[in-house]
Amino acid sequence: MLQDATRALIMKTILFLFAAVPFFSQAAEKLQWQVLKSTVFAGTVRQYAFHKTPGLDAAKSAALMVFQDGHSYVEGNFHAPEVIDKLVQSGAVPPMLLVFVNPGVFADDLAEPQGWNTPKGLKSNRSVEYDSLSPLYAEMLEREILPLAGKVQLLSADPTQRAICGTSSGGICAFTVAWERPDLFAKVMSHVGSFTNIRGGHLYPSLIRKEKIRPLRVFLQDGTNDLDNEHGNWFLANQQMAAALKFRHYDYTFVTDDSEHGGKGGGKIFADSVKWLWRK
Questions:
Q1: At the fourth CATH level, which superfamily is domain 25-277?
Q2: Please, are residues 178 and 250 in contact by the beta-carbon 8 Å criterion?
Q3: What is the C-alpha to C-alpha distance for residues 50 and 15, in angstroms, rounded to an integer?
Q4: What is the distance between the alpha carbons of residues 41 and 126, in angstroms, rounded to a whole number?
């Protein structure tokens, strides 16, 4: 009996230790992060990586999906490579090249993997790149990231075969890219998007209502317990975005829950969200 109890205790300890160890997927381990020195955002460097889903043909142009704060979509709440691989294999979405891009930091190089925290002693350019209502980030993608992606896989030039995605400031960044350059991207996915007055993002609902309609498909997700601070109320801002998109008859959806700021809410519905975004 004592031996059985000891054996059970050992097994519980082993299971606890395994649960405590971070899960690193095979797809994530295969990603080769590289460093880009930007000329569009002079003085910055950033890491980026590519993932080819099953079914890609090197001789045929493929769909594309770009993720801001790319590190957070590889693992964390989303596990984008594994989730989208399974969707491709099931026929729910087309084969595509996934592009993970991290925000710029002012440095000569990056020796360590980028995460949410800026390396000690370095200055991040994330808010300037992501929160600004400007075509510059789209220009950076067009001139510096997409040509590199094109060397990995022949890409479709059709904007309806290109999606862009992000969380928080990365969410408004994704919308800004498509808003400024609908000839580059026609599909947008925003998780807890920062459509608040960090750098003027609160103006988007009015701009959507007044400016010409862009040929965009927009997925929005936010939670009722999202941020409420000096920049604005995130849930209210996303409600305003959804109302403006509805008023102008955009192809959009707005999924709500009770989540806080971060990727938990979006991660729970990520597979269905991707299917909605890529539906025919």
A1: Alpha/Beta hydrolase fold, catalytic domain (3.40.50.1820)
A2: no
A3: 33
A4: 11
User: pLDDT for 10-50, tens place per residue?
Assistant: 344 333 333 333 334 566 668 999 999 999 999 999 999 99
Mode of pairing for the β-strands spanning 228-229 and 232-233? antiparallel
- The DSSP letter of residue 114 is -
Q: What is the pTM of this model?
A: 0.90
Angle at 148 between CA 144 and CA 154, to 5 degrees: 130
Residue 165 predicted with pLDDT over 70: yes
Q: Whole-angstrom Cα distance, residue 119 to residue 189?
A: 28
Helix orientation angle between 80-90 and 270-277, rounded to the nearest 10 degrees:
50
Q: Is 46 exposed, middle or buried (0-12, 13-18, 19+ CB in 10 A)?
A: buried
Neighbours of 72 (CB within 10 A): 24
41: region left, alpha or beta (phi > 0 left; psi from -120 to 50 alpha): beta
Give 34-79 as a 3 state SS string: EEEECCCCCCEEEEEEEEECCCCCCCCCEEEEEEECHHHHHCCCCC
Distance from chain centroid for Cα 108: 25
Beta strands in the chain (DSSP E): 34-37, 44-52, 63-68, 96-101, 105-106, 123-124, 162-167, 187-191, 217-223, 228-229, 232-233, 251-257
Give tens-digit pLDDT for 209-225.
999 999 999 999 999 99
Domain definitions of the chain by residue range: 25-277
Instruction: Please give the single-letter amino acid code of residue 259.
Output: S
